Amino acid sequence: MKVIICGAGQVGFNIARQLARERNDVIVIDQSTDLVRRVNELLDVQGMVGHASHPDMLEAADASSADMIIAVTHTDEVNMIACQVAHSLFEVPTKIARVRNQNYLQAMWANLFARDNLPIDVTISPEIEVARAISRRLDVPGASDMMPFADDRVRVISVLTDNSCPIVDTPLRQLTELFSGLSIRVLGILRDQLILTPSGDEFINAGDEVYFAADADHVRRAMAAFGHEEREARRVIVVGGGNIGFYLAELLESEHPSVNVKIIESSRERAEVAADRLGQAIVLNGDALDREILREANIEATETFVAVTNDDQVNVLACLLAKRHGCQRTIALVNNMSYSQLVVSLGVDVVVSPRATTVSTILQHVRRGRIIKVHSVHDGRAEIIEGEALETSPLVGMALRESQIPRGIIVGALLRKNEVIIPRGDTVIEAGDRVIVFAAANMVTKVEQIFSVRSDYF
């Protein structure tokens, strides 16, 4: 597949890296000579310096033979025009654009990106995606991440384990014996920055980050098995009244009306806008690093503190200060993921990366075959993929233990009609099943083949 990526920033770089890993033909366009040099030096792609929306640049990138254009520059208008030019002049089949300004995304302008207007197939708002990612984490207290699959009938959850975890040093195959009737399957383990796709003989160690799939109705019991029995937050403080903080507050008001939400915003103008547009949330104008503001927000009685300003240091320091004042759980937005592990070791419970969230959303539309949903794990080390099993899939019609699934791929759950199935060795996948798999990065292409119409995969 030939893909043109407009923008060599964090999102563009990481998408290019993952697509190049899979031997796609990738061209990256950016105005910055330094960013293009970095792309050319570190990735097996072609970097070009120039304006991504200019016809001559797209012509030089041979856009007429491209399968897809992904526009993720820092300017919405450049992204939109790049897709328009790619469509009108070069007939590029699939066009994806990152759009930050919420004015473009309002429901009243829903036809803006229709084929006869601005022909963009997928628009992605990082702010909205990040707010949704944080809201999902609030749904499952104790989880470092939560991803809904199969119409939210299946949830894939990651948890950090320590010495107090009840199942540390327990072989995975014994989990069903210890917790009878619990519908859960361990998919992957992040240990020492390496992703493991474990067998039943693997043990969970203290310090692991464990990914497991569970029937949505079994999540509370599954979390208890990992030593997490926290209650859902009833009081939440959000630091930052920008797009992310505002949209998160809106989500909480609409989906969790019983939750008491307070926003701390340093800009008086933004604080007034948020106060006018939100229905129930209380907006405080002040500095989240000011102890008096935290006391005014009643930090001692707050279960969850979420810092989503555009300053990583403010987010981390505010979370640590909230912990010191008695807040039970903190979530920090961190753009620079190079020190995310350090942030967690300092005491911040959950780190959310806008880059990783955006990349996951884009990959969902890049994957080939009958792919429904994708979530990228730890900077592309693995992916959780939901796909539809077709009649020609090599998985269909035989027990999983006989299907010769390559090492590095684990089938975590199925949705058959309206029934969630956590598979065992004798489970037989049927055509039409929605299948959730965990795949190491080097196995993603094979997963795409599993969900394609080819029958000569194995």
Concise overview:
This protein has 14 helices and 22 strands.
Describe the 3D structure.
By secondary structure, this protein is of the alpha/beta class. Among the domains are: 2-124, 3-Layer(aba) Sandwich (Rossmann fold), CATH 3.40.50.720; 235-327, Rossmann fold (3-Layer(aba) Sandwich), CATH 3.40.50; 358-450, Regulator of K+ conductance, C-terminal domain (Alpha-Beta Plaits, 2-Layer Sandwich), CATH 3.30.70. It has 14 helices and 22 strands. It has helices at residues 10-21, 33-42, 55-60, 76-90, 126-139, 175-178, 219-225, 243-255, 268-277, 291-296, 312-324, 340-346, 354-366, 444-450, and strands at 2-6, 25-30, 46-49, 68-71, 94-98, 122-124, 145-149, 154-160, 184-191, 194-196, 209-215, 235-239, 260-265, 282-285, 304-307, 329-333, 350-352, 371-377, 382-388, 409-416, 419-421, 434-440. Strands 3-2-1-4-5-6 form a six-stranded parallel sheet, with helices on both faces. It has a six-stranded parallel sheet with strand order 14-13-12-15-16-17, sandwiched between helices. It has a five-stranded antiparallel sheet with strand order 7-8-11-9-10. A hairpin with a 4-residue loop joins strand 7 and strand 8 (154-160). Helix 5 (126-139) packs across helix 8 and helix 5 (126-139) crosses helix 13 (354-366). The chain is globular. The two termini are 22 Å apart. The mean pLDDT is 89.
